[in-house]
Amino acid sequence: MPYMASEILRGKEYTQKSDVYSFGIIINEIISIIPPFNDEPHDHYLALDICRGKRPKIRVETPEFLKDLIQKCWDAIPENRPTSEEVWYKIHKFIYDDYPNFVKQFEELSELKYNFTPITKSTTKTQLYETHTQAIYKSRLLTLSNLPEPVNCSNQEGFISSRNTIDVNDKNKSFFL
Fold first, then answer.
1. In 3-state terms, what secondary structure has residue 143?
2. How are the residues of the chain apportioned to helix, strand and coil, as percentages rounded to the nearest 5?
3. Looking at residue 8, what is its pLDDT?
4. 1 within some domain
5. Residue limits of the Protein kinase domain (predicted)?
6. How far apart are CA 33 and CA 1, in angstroms?
7. What are the residues facing 19 on neighbouring strands?
8. Half-sphere exposure of 136 (CA within 13 A, CB side)
9. Is 13 among the domain residues?
10. Domains identified in the chain, total number
11. Which of 6, 53, 115, 117 has the smallest number of CB atoms closer than 10 Å to its CB?
């Protein structure tokens, strides 16, 4: 569920634009080394929060061009997301046309002190982050209904989870995830 665009959670068809959303989630996971929403249950409340604009945290050390690209991929309105060709072009252009800036950003990244354990061959994922017991990937029936129209949230730090604000009991629509 955490890789799915909000329109897919609402029952719409998969499109290239929903794939671009998922690609943005994957880019962020590769950079952060942490799966999206690993610290909370993957349930109706998370689906509701995603529709309300909640997105995974982007590490501050992430190069600016990648932050911008990730956020564009995550736009709540599919038409505002870049195409796969535009994503490829932006990455290619940044690496090759602005190579000095590319190198500079990654040098700055390597100079920063990370706040996590160094990774070695013997490091396990449980040493890097803690996963909520209901965020483990297995097939289970989730009832998703009456999800709101997707919106963007400009204040991710101040986002208040639906889990803390409402009771969702309407169970008219089901997806097998």
1. strand
2. 45, 5, 50
3. 94
4. no
5. 1-95
6. 18
7. none
8. 7
9. yes
10. 1
11. 115
What is the residue type of 36? Answer: P
**Cβ atoms of residues 72 and 26 within 8 Å:** no
Per-residue tokens: 138: 């297995």
Pick from 63, 84, 68, 106: nearest CA to 17: 84
**Tens-of-pLDDT digits for all 177 residues of the chain?**
899 999 999 999 999 999 999 999 999 998 888 899 988 888 889 999 999 999 999 988 888 889 999 999 999 999 999 999 999 999 888 888 777 777 777 676 666 555 444 555 555 555 556 665 555 656 666 667 788 888 998 888 878 888 777 554 544 444 444
* Alpha carbons 43 and 164: distance in angstroms, whole number: 14
Give residue 116's pLDDT.
Answer: 47
Orientation angle between helical segments 99-111 and 84-97, nearest 10 degrees: 90
**pLDDT for the residue 161:** 83
CATH number of the domain residue 53 falls in: 1.10.510
Contact between residue 52 and residue 156 where contact means Cβ atoms under 8 Å apart: no
What is the predicted pLDDT for the residue at 164? 75
Is 120 part of a structural domain of the chain? Answer: yes
CA gap 90, 138 in Å, rounded: 35
| CA–CA gap between residue 107 and residue 55 (Å, rounded) | 27
